[in-house]
Amino acid sequence: MFKKIKAKTIAVIMAFAIVFAGVPALTIAEPCNTVSQAEAAQAKTTRKNSSRKKSSKKKSSKKKSAKKKSSKKKSSKKKSAKKKSSKKKSSMKKKSTSKKSSKKSAKKTSSRIKSAKKTTQKKSAKKKATAKNTTTTQTTSRNSAQKKNTQNNSSSRKGASGEAKTFQNNTSDVKPADNIKSKTVPKSTSKKTTKAKKTSKKKYTEVRGLWVSVYDYPSLGLKTDSKATFKKNADKLLKKMQSYKLNTLYMQVRAYDDAAWKSKTFHAMKYISPKATKLGYKNASKKAASTLKFDPMQVMIKEAHAKKIKIVAWMNPYRCSTGSNDYYLDPANGKSQSRVVNAVKEVMTYNVDGIVFDDYFYTAVLGYKNTSGIITRSAFSADHWLKASKKRQNVNNLIKKVYKAVKASNKKATFGIAPQGNLENDRALGADIDTWLSKNGYIDYLMPQIYWSNNWGSSHTKMFSNRLKQFRKSSLNKNGRMKYVALALYRSGEKPNQSSKWTDYGWSKSKSNIASQYKELKKAGCEGFSLFSAQFLNKSAGKAEMKNLKKVLSK
């Protein structure tokens, strides 16, 4: 029994091997003589049927997989085709929208270009118009003070520093493509120009002056009968002023009832003319028009204005001479007043920027005398004992007349007074500070001579600060005409007198007194200063002070 089962299993295994290997059944089955022929035939048929079924299954599975693959490929192709079509549609839409937007932007850019061109054309037209106006005004008045670089038509100690900058609007040079990017390009440039103009105005409104005294003329080379020499040395002085940022020259043209111009009424100033000095006392009977070989004041005005420096004529009203026998015009006498006014009128025929009087009014000398037909008071006259209020009244009569004469000649010209820095002394000498700083019709500005430092006396008093506060006090400076301060450059490096309790120590202990005083007066609301005097620009101590002042002025 066991042998039969074993033989059957071996035969089945061999049959499967023959089917898969493709070897003839007889050759393989020959060793097994135990299997019958009928059984072998049945096994063979069953094997063939099973192999056929398996092959058919394989073929059907292959067909199914092929169908699936083809269907997948078709679906993927359809999807990709749909995606491509959708992409094409979206791209077409984008292109159409971009075309529309580009058309719109092109329209906008063209409109912007047109508007930019219009604005630049308008601006260029305005520039041409202004240029024409300026050229016409320059040709009509060559000797007039130039508009941009001269500042206030003010006072005896005033002026403008630096040159005005002109700014051009460069929008006309910008290409249309650049203007398209930003509409605000031309606007921003115009804003910058307005700001620059504002700053330049600030620079030119401040007075930075220099007093040129008759005692300065010889050392400055201005006492000469040669016009060429005078012009050369005047140019040298003016250039030095420019280097120190100064802009207003206060030229003393009348010191002792004389004239630094070709006057037909007054004799020539001996401090500016060697010929007048040689004439001596005979000079008083001759007129400056015949004595002077050229007109010093006219030359100085022309040279100063060419450098954009203002020039103010400095005049002493009453003083006729100095020395042991001092003579003064009588302030109470109408003829004396007329003589002073006539001198002012003569000077105003020149192209000066203003007139300034200094502190010489009534004096401490006993009385007045008659001399050379000029109306004066005799010694020990009653006028010496006049009350201060009466003196101020007499002086005010003259001041009002001078103010009217200046304005009648040139409304833009200024008239100012530079009194002492001591209010009580001013009032006693007839300088009516209170009226001048509260009422109209007298002066355009006041410039007190505050010639002290802030280290004065044994108590080291801040004298400059104290006097500045007195003059700037609102109860006194009611009309705001206390505008400028005269500063003591002449005291630079001054050695103190140790034996005097009134000595001013500040000038020997510091080289920046003027610079500090400038800062203080600016802080107090003043509009400028003037330095006394020109010859001290060449002194070593004066140079040290000016070096420190220049640093402050350059900021």
From TrEMBL:
Pfam families referenced in this protein's UniProt entry, alphabetically: GHL10
Residue ranges, compositional bias (Basic residues): 45-130, 189-200
Signal peptide interval: 1-21
UniProt entry keywords in alphabetical sequence: Signal
InterPro entries per UniProt: Divisome_Glycosyl_Hydrolase, GH, GHL10
Chain intervals with Polar residues compositional bias: 146-158
Extent of Low complexity compositional bias: 131-144
UniProt keyword Signal present: yes
Residues covered by region (Disordered): 38-200
Glycosyl hydrolase-like domain ranges (all copies): 322-503
A GO MF label: hydrolase activity
Protein name: Family 10 glycosylhydrolase
Species whose genome carries this gene: Candidatus Weimeria bifida
